[in-house]
Amino acid sequence: MAYVLLLYYHLIDEGGITNDQTVYIDSKEFNPFDFIDFEIREDEGTSLDLDEELIRKGALIHLICDLNDVIGEFDEDYKDQIFTNKIIGALKKCEDGPIEEVAKLIMLLDVPESELDYPKYHELLESIFEVHVKGFMHRKLARKP
Questions:
Q1: For residue 90, which of 71, 82, 21, 128 has the smallest C-alpha distance?
Q2: Neighbours of 66 (CB within 10 A)
Q3: Which of 97, 105, 117, 121 is deepest in the core (most CB within 10 A)?
Q4: Domain ranges, ordered by start, for the chain
């Protein structure tokens, strides 16, 4: 959870999904591919006090940030990158998962690179940021102790 919250901090600090925001996350400690289908299994009578949904969403947002970095860096050749295909493959496994915009993102990217609708793409990234990052923080701050 700490790595997800650190990522969220940098996303909020920069005002959205921009670039290089996952560089603050140690990939040996938090590999987003390992956490997209994370499940908590607690022994009866114990509580690990972990937010399973936060971890799953954070892993997906981490992958979306990484994908955005690849698209920004390689522009019309981003689909030729092995990492792009790995990210899109992982996102496809989560189309019906905790971030409904993932299905829209996959559909938007299902065109040749030269036909990517960048305004819609950035609008979708903004929506993901607003709903899942800022929304999470707003809900936490609005909770009454």
A1: 82
A2: 22
A3: 105
A4: 2-41+50-142
- What does the alpha-carbon distance between residue 99 and residue 96 come to, in Å, rounded to a whole number? 8
User: What pLDDT digit, counting tens, does each position of 58-113 carry?
Assistant: 999 999 999 999 999 998 899 999 999 999 999 999 999 899 999 999 999 999 99
Alpha-carbon distances, residue 43 vs 10, 39, 55, 56, 112 (angstroms): 34, 13, 19, 21, 48
Tokens of 15: 């005002």
Task: Please name which of 103, 118, 133, 105 lies closest in space to residue 16, comparing C-alpha atoms.
Answer: 133
Identify whether the C-beta of residue 1 lies closer than 8 Å to the C-beta of residue 54.
Answer: yes
**Alpha helices (runs of H) in the chain, residue ranges in sequence order:** 2-14, 32-35, 52-74, 82-93, 101-109, 118-128, 135-142
